[in-house]
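Consider the following assembly input.
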Amino acid sequence: MNNSAFSQSLLDKLGPEAVITTPADIAPWLSDFRGMYKGQAQAVVRPNTTDDVATCIALCADARVPVVPRGGNTGLCGGATPDTRSDNVILSLDRMHAIRSIDTIGNTLVAEAGCILGNLRRAAADVHRLLPLSLAAEDSCQLGGNLSTNAGGVNVVRYGMTRELVLGLEAVLPNGEIFHGLHTLRKDNTGYDLKQLLIGAEGTLGVITAAALRLYSRNDVRVIVLAAVDSPQQALHLFELLFERSGPRMQAFEFFTAECVDMVLAQTDGLRQPFADRHPGYVLIELADTVDEASLRTLVETVIGEALERELCADAAVSESIAQVNSMWRLREEISEAQRADGPHLKHDVSLPIASIPAFMASVGERIVKQQEGIRQIVFGHFGDGNLHYNLSRPLGAPRDFFAEHGARLTAEVLDEVMRYGGSISAEHGIGQLKREYFSRYKDPLDIRLMREIRKCFDPHGIMNPGKIF
Amino acid sequence: MNNSAFSQSLLDKLGPEAVITTPADIAPWLSDFRGMYKGQAQAVVRPNTTDDVATCIALCADARVPVVPRGGNTGLCGGATPDTRSDNVILSLDRMHAIRSIDTIGNTLVAEAGCILGNLRRAAADVHRLLPLSLAAEDSCQLGGNLSTNAGGVNVVRYGMTRELVLGLEAVLPNGEIFHGLHTLRKDNTGYDLKQLLIGAEGTLGVITAAALRLYSRNDVRVIVLAAVDSPQQALHLFELLFERSGPRMQAFEFFTAECVDMVLAQTDGLRQPFADRHPGYVLIELADTVDEASLRTLVETVIGEALERELCADAAVSESIAQVNSMWRLREEISEAQRADGPHLKHDVSLPIASIPAFMASVGERIVKQQEGIRQIVFGHFGDGNLHYNLSRPLGAPRDFFAEHGARLTAEVLDEVMRYGGSISAEHGIGQLKREYFSRYKDPLDIRLMREIRKCFDPHGIMNPGKIF
């Protein structure tokens, strides 16, 4: 069937509200938000029911037409951008944004995949519950994308990745069948846990249409500590102390270097050096609890007092107001934007066994500098999860296309070192198109073989998001 | 190859310390601890390295000999008991009981599958950490069995199932290849999360040889509440209040009926009615924290005071001493043993959406009584996870073999009702042999088909724990 006949069959079955076929209207759907990838498609389909998703995929399966699922288009690896085949169908679930139920006894939220994450967080808060998944893009990313990339974010140290929040899934498989796994059960040991395959599969095993998520108690009492550290090693010991003493209250433990702060201050108005002295590194710790601000504050002040006395940090400030909480967080949150404003750069989203972060940072730093003098290492991340955004900005004065020539070589330096320390080349961003080559280079061949076989089980004709991951 | 030639090849490759072939020595390995199932085997293999496990399985794969993995033999569904084929090889990892590492910065414990769970808990406690998996059999069950059945236990309401504790796995696949997934990373989004398939697979996809587990902060401060409730509905509202107020401190929320207490008091010395009046139901709540007993106690007393005032419970006692903690827990923990002492009975380990427990209990109770007057319903469980042990004891005066005639019919009543409420027929015990028939009756055919295909990918010759799950 040619493209126009196939597009017509989509229109016939799903109606004009659900199918876009005009090239001008398709155009905005063809690239990722950073503009790194651009592909082609014959149609964009925007169904508003699970049955219509199934109808669309069944048609595509019959005609062997590739399906490229797309969420809020906030991904960093091109996982939701079509390749250059002209017959691609982009499948967006943005019209499926119903919250099907919220249960404050079972503490579950059942929502459709097109829901904006921030809306779900607010819906939970409205009934005095917490949906703990929180990330920079939360007001534009969609739940389906969060699930398909197993999104991380700032509270993983306490609540785990997206995977840990999922109790059940509804999905359409690559042959158009509906997987009815939308349970809200906390315990269900009846065979293999199939939903786990769909989480983090980047749309290669089917399209998630809805999920049942765990909710937690709301933590309205919150205290932030900003601490200065002389070294990553010192940050480790501070982490250890906080973990022991504050137990489950610690919900973020972020790290960034002096170079990150310099870049933020250079690119952002209204912020200033956090301490009188400039320190090699900084740690931002967020603690939160359901009740009793005074006890939380006493606990934090006692622990930080001990940390200063035992020289587990060089300086520290405890937030006294919401304004302080916000300005402390801004120092951390503005890093990505400041680096973008500074110009082209290279992102590495890696993870490591936490205890090996200092040795890793020392050795990779040495390798990078040996390769390229003057390169600026902008290192920050979710230290408490072992997750570093080990980013590089070009040497001052280097041309804007610096990384076109040097990027691959520098990335190899970083990732080789990650593997030497038993780390992961993609902590929370996934593989998509961007890291496909690295995936095949670094992942155990046995794992890749098993993944290929599983993918073939689910999708014998290879129509689901072809070219992504592997 | 006949059995004796094959057993000889195992002996030749693995040595006499690792291979048992004498029928008298094999005999104790052929049944489950309750004596419900009994099978046959030509040999028991007890390797002490992962390479030897791989050698054993590769030999079995080549000769198409079935492999039956066995942990501490504490399972309740016959999942580790061989069938009646004479060529079965039982594979026990009890000699692989090394703790490979404990890391108090990354908060991970890497241990071999033959480790006794209780020993791992003590090893974690020794370095001021908590391994939160806790269950009645913890001093005899093995980690490999816990992983393969995705064990639950009493602290799931706070820490999740075994699955939630696993960061990495090492396993031998059904062709003898070693799966090297023993990472300690908190974040790793590089393709499908293959280890999730092995967790809860009851040894059908390979043999887990070691795991990397999450550790938590130690909660040395602990307060128990025993509350009397007029109905399961009241227990629900009490749960809701505790969840909101105590946040992550609540680590157990157990429920049992007056009939459970009667049975415990009839069969056990040294315990007495917990309150002056007999109440229809009881709830045992455990709260724990890292620090500050006084604050935890104040919090609990305030919340329980409010619960009494709002009539969310009929009576309540807060533990004042370790002795009280222990005697409160004993009331709950002795139920299984009391029911065993009372005579033959029928176990149902089911789960439900938490909010539907009261309606479920009312309707299934009515069905059961209609089917069989005088039947004793011994209902208890991990209410905060929606997990009920909906057990039945025979009518007073009924013959010991009562359930041989009536068991299947009564089980069908319970499980039909579980499905009607969107529950699970096996919350935490798994399927094994015991629930195979119910699995095929109640599980979605699409799920079963996908599981069959995945099993075939991993184990094309069907040698791993045949006859288990499906």
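The domain at 99-217 of chain B is CATH 3.30.465.10 (Uridine Diphospho-n-acetylenolpyruvylglucosamine Reductase; domain 3). Ask yourself how this observation constrains the way the partners meet.
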